Amino acid sequence: MPWVSAKEKPKPKPQDWQINGISAALDDGYDKVKEYALYQLGEYNLKDLKSVGKKPEEIAQKAAKILKDEKVSPDVRSGAAVALGNLGSAAANYVPDILNFLKDEKVDANLRSRAAVALGKIRKLELKEVIVILNNVYEPGSLEYLDWRFLTYFLSGGTEEVKTLLKWLGSPQVVPDKLTHDEGVKTLNVFLQVCNSSQGLERLRNDLAKQISEVTTNKNVTWKLQNIVLLQNHYSNLEQVHSTNANAVQSAIDKLKVWRWFVLARNTILIHAAFWLALIFAYPKFPQVQAIFFWNPWVRRILGIGYVGFLLAWVPFLRRKLFEPFQPSLLADAGLDNFNDKTYFPESRVKIPNSEEILPVTTALPSIKGQIVLEGDSGLGKSMFLRHLVKNSQRILVYLPAQKCNKGVIEAIQDKLHGQAKDADFLKNLIYSGAIDICIDGLNEVTADTRAKICQFVESYFRGNIIMTTQPLEWTPPSTAKIYYLQPLEQQQIQEFLISRQPRLPQDAKVQGDDYAKACTNYLTEVLNNQQAKEELNAAQRTLSNPMDLTVVALMLSQGKYPNLFRLQEQQYNLMAAEYLKEWNQEFPLKKFSAAVYQMRLEDKQALPADEFFQVAMSLSDEKYKMVVSRQWQDKKGEAQKEWYFRHDKIMDFFLVQNFLGETDAAEGLLVDRMGDPRFRGVYFLLTTLLEIDAAKKLREELIQYAADTKDNTVSNTFVQLLRTR
């Protein structure tokens, strides 16, 4: 038809006489004249009509009248419809007339289609207007009564809501195969507007219910939590009309509710975990956090909802954080400030349990795994190895002298946690889970009762990582532990060890560098001379194979002295005592100091009574002798403290033995009373060289008799071997 394509042609600017002619022709009584005039009118736009002084509204009035005139031919009326569309907003007053015209089923479908197109050009219809039209022309379930040209108008000339609505009404072919979440929300929002605006239009509402159900259950749409209100509104509407499609909507709502609770639970857990994670990072710097949240059982269990304590025990990172504030205290007794790992001799060897294989101790025990007993004679380097392990470990460790475990191992660890770890059960769980490695040094230096407590603890926490050191003694080791036997140095290692001591020699040593190395070689050549008696050679090798005694040899050689292998500690003491006399202008108080040391051993104390023996401690700690070492630390008030300790139990044994010498009843009584006390076994070994030969032989017989009675020959066997050299 000519007016369909007319809008595609360039519109000429009209002349006054042309507009006047068109206006007059619309009043003409002949259809052909009107048709031609309307055709001509379609050639011009609204702006051009206004430019020639004619009111477009007047022309629109005439065109609308022609459109409704049933006496006029359909072609002329179609031209009127097109003309109204071209007039645009000038024909706005006639929109209600055009809407009523569209509802008239007696009017030709093609003519209504033209009117629909014109209506779209005048203005876009809103959803409420379309609902009224649909209720009059729409038959639920099909588009038979809705001309496709009429549908085309709504898709192109209606609002976006109108377009969305018409996509879902009628034939299923117009429903999108795939629907995104945003499209689904948009569609349901339109449907909600239709439901709210279609009260009384039951045909439309009933058919709309099916479409709501289809959108809600569309497999391509995943509804989000914020859509619950929208779905609930639809459910309420469907319930009002008693639609069976309400069940589909309710199912979608139920799924979202379950998901909402899941998200709420998840968010709650994340917030809770973030709170505790923030606490664990603040934990090292704030003692209040330590005491209130982590080591308080009730707060940790209730506020931690059970899982916090579990994670603290089993997550390595959290375990490290938990013990981080206490690291200095946990390792204080290791004396790492006086330990130079570069001077540690890593070639000491151990015998592997249940095997004849002998390996370097650092190879056999690179870390603490499981339960280990490291057994070896005094001076073989058990404590040095523990300090080496502690120094190089990346794990949380606690170093405990066995004397501090007299109340129990748990109690000893709690003391190192500054009183914060009041929850002993939690600490036990941490130990059982392997959260903290435990080093217990010197089982032979404590009473049988303390040793029993330690063994009981080890067997109770068989999954923990625990290493213990001891000299040979008659005891029952924990059944869960493996025993590694530390070996004496071999002859080749002796010289290597002596040379390796150079970094630890005093800075003012008289013999250093190549001279020191030469002195070591000459000394070893002389004392290990094969021309001497076999028993003397064996005794010399036994002493030199002991790293502690060999360290004393190194110190003496560096001072230009000749070490006496059978009286090393006595020789070292005499050198120190001479220096003491020179420095303090008085004799060294050997008897008084030895009595104090004896009392220390009985009470299982380690620190020297420095307040009473300050001058003694200063001389013993001289770099030339290194008989004691000092350790500095802070007490609970943050005040600096300093204590002195014997560098090795062999040095302590020298002062202990002074209480056993002499012909007094007290000395003789001690010789008998302390035979079964492993804390004094080193004293008896020293007595083999310090007692008169007859007294030594008498003591030998008493030790043999004691061994026969008690089945404990750990002291008597070594005593007999040492006494042979005399």
Short description:
The protein has 726 residues and is α/β, with parallel strands linked by helices.
Mean pLDDT across every amino acid position? 80
- The largest sheet has its strands arranged as 2-1-7-3-6-5-4
> CATH topology of the largest domain, what is it called?
Rossmann fold
Largest sheet: 7 strands, mixed
Q: Could you list some keywords that capture this structure?
A:
two-stranded antiparallel sheet; Leucine-rich Repeat Variant; seven-stranded mixed β-sheet
Textual characterization of the structure:
- The model is unreliable at 1-8 and 141-145 (pLDDT under 50).
- Helices cover 57% and strands 6% of the residues.
- The termini are far apart.
- The chain contains 37 helices and nine strands.
- A seven-stranded mixed beta sheet has the order 2-1-7-3-6-5-4, with helices on both faces. A two-stranded antiparallel ribbon has the order 8-9.
- It folds into six domains: 1-123, Alpha Horseshoe (Leucine-rich Repeat Variant), CATH 1.25.10; 158-275; 276-321; 328-486, P-loop containing nucleotide triphosphate hydrolases (Rossmann fold); 489-566, no CATH class; 660-724, no CATH class.
- The chain is rod-shaped, with a radius of gyration of 52 Å.
- With 726 residues, it is α/β, with parallel strands linked by helices.
- A hairpin with a 6-residue loop joins strand 1 and strand 2.
Write the layout of secondary structure elements.
Layout: H1 2-6, H2 16-25, H3 31-41, H4 46-51, H5 56-68, H6 74-87, H7 95-103, H8 109-122, H9 127-137, H10 148-157, H11 160-168, H12 181-197, H13 202-216, H14 228-240, H15 246-282, H16 287-294, H17 297-303, H18 307-314, H19 316-323, H20 327-330, E1 349-351, E2 358-360, H21 361-364, E3 371-375, H22 382-392, E4 397-401, H23 409-416, H24 424-432, E5 437-441, H25 448-460, E6 466-470, E7 482-486, H26 491-500, H27 513-527, H28 534-544, H29 547-558, H30 568-584, H31 590-602, H32 614-620, E8 628-634, E9 640-646, H33 649-657, H34 665-673, H35 681-690, H36 693-710, H37 714-724
Parallel strand pairs: 3-6, 3-7, 4-5, 5-6
Antiparallel strand pairs: 1-2, 1-7, 8-9
Helix pairs in contact: 2-3, 3-6, 5-6, 6-8, 7-8, 8-10, 10-11, 11-12, 12-13, 12-14, 13-15, 14-15, 18-19, 18-24, 26-29, 30-32, 31-33, 33-35, 35-37, 36-37
